[in-house]
Amino acid sequence: MEPNSIYKMDCLEGISSLPDSSIHLCVTSPPYNLGNTAKKKKIVYNTYKDDKDFLEYIAWLRSIFTALWDKLTDDGRVCINIGDQQNGSIPTSVFISSFLIDIGYKPFTTIIWNKSQVSNRTSWGSWLSPSSPSFPTPFEYILVFYKNSRKLIHKGESDLTREEFITNSLALWSFPPETKMKKFGHPAMFPEELPRRLIKMFSYKGDVVLDPFAGCGTTLKVAKDLGRQFIGFEIDDKYIQIAVDRINGN
Length: 250
Hints:
CATH superfamily: Vaccinia Virus protein VP39
Strand content: 15-25%
Helix content: 25-40%
Largest sheet: 8 strands, mixed
CATH class: Alpha Beta
């Protein structure tokens, strides 16, 4: 399995095929499972059906990050962009953090991505009453974990500027969400700014960056732009072609 490639494979199968200790950084955003918990906001992928039972969904994610453990270098990092469900009443981020720690991953930090966007601000719950108010969340989490060594033990070249380090070392990031999802035909994409900050803050030039849920290839494109190697897995032919075109600058 060669780097600088996107493979049409189920991510669990793909991760299992990777050489051990070959991945320096994983930057990804798994499906949010909204098809099962928020029918009015159902995200429809071209192939993947986003409607698992919640505990089945968590067990599925756990199996993926369990498989990833041996594939990370000792100083490998994992960055997971995720939002909680149903206005915070289903704390998906807590479940993910819990099973990562149980696997053996160690917490590095939690970054709040302030999207300054609420899709349905009129969802008040009990209007003007403390009976059952609703709290729409205009933010998402970026959970950052590491394998064994918090400090990078392999040598490499940083490409961080002074301004980037000062700004991005604050665990509150404010930038808008992706605005071109209709253009790319994908219902759930993060903007290039998210992997750009993570890749520069948590890896050296030349390191191998993995996105097991590659989608339209945002992480992979940014990794290439920043002089990193990349590997992605995706099951949808349409998204793979879009990713390849983006990576190649088309």
